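To fix ideas, we give here one paired sequence and structure record:
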Amino acid sequence: MLDRIQAFLHTLTSPHHSQEFAPDDPRVAFVALCFQVMEADGNVSEEEQQKFRNLLRERYDLSEERLKALIEIGHQAGSEAVDYYRFTSDLRRYLVDENDRVELLGILWDIVYADGQRSEIEDHVIWRIADLLGVSARDRVLQRQQAAMRATGGDQGGD
């Protein structure tokens, strides 16, 4: 699982070496969507936060200060957004391969399942994101099932 996440995050970072995070930087869009998912059910658990920070720390070659800045910028962008379109369109421009967009959903599901729970509102948020990214319902459900299996060590977790 970690290799899959690292490979995906690597695709987001390779051409970006600037010291500033541009508004259309796919890393900002990714962080904003992660916050949208984590905050969807009104309860951002410690496990979700830890999973999210570990994902960013493992892949992005940023100092702790720069990592905090990315998280702050992404969180602010997510808080100011009225919908997911801005972030998904930024990511769609960057993630031209459908498999990369499917992988993004898998990562979002991994964050959802970090606390061992999944809510209907989290389902809805990821459904909207998947739709805007052009990911099929079949792939969205498969990614959800795989994330549930990873979270429970192989059990479907009620799916």
Observations:
- The chain has one domain: 2-9+27-152.
- The chain has a mean pLDDT of 86.
- The chain has eight helices and no strands.
- The radius of gyration is 14 Å.
